[in-house]
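Example S7 (structure tokens).
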């Protein structure tokens, strides 16, 4: 019974994981291009030359955060549905810790305060 489930679920999970990874990569790449090309041109036309750097950082950071969330989700699905071994769970743990740390530090960088502090 277990083998039948793996034979059915694993290929579907692999397709889903590959799709989520591609979407995550495209989101990061798309936000990067938008933040570095479209946003500065738009802000410059509107006369907000002082705000260009801050806006580019905000857009880029948000894109990276969203892409990282999808990549973490894909890693979790892949580990649980396709390769559930102690080794893959250990690797997943390390990857999730690193990506969570990156997400946390990016969020602090973008918002300017710790998550537990009140917004001003």
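Recovered sequence:
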């Amino acid at each position: 019974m277990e083998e039948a489930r793996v034979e059915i679920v694993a290929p579907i999970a692999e397709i889903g994981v590959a799709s989520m990874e591609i979407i995550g990569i495209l989101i990061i790449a798309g936000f990067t291009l938008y933040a570095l090309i479209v946003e500065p041109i738009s802000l410059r036309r509107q006369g907000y030359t002082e705000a260009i750097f801050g806006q580019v950082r905000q857009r880029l950071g948000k894109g990276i955060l969203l892409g990282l969330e999808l990549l973490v989700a894909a890693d979790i699905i892949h580990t649980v549905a396709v390769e559930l071994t102690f080794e893959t769970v250990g690797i997943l743990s390390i990857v999730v810790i690193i990506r969570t740390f990156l997400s946390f530090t990016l969020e602090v960088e973008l918002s300017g305060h710790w998550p537990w502090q009140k917004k001003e």
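Notes on this example. Helices lie at 2-46, 52-81, 86-111.
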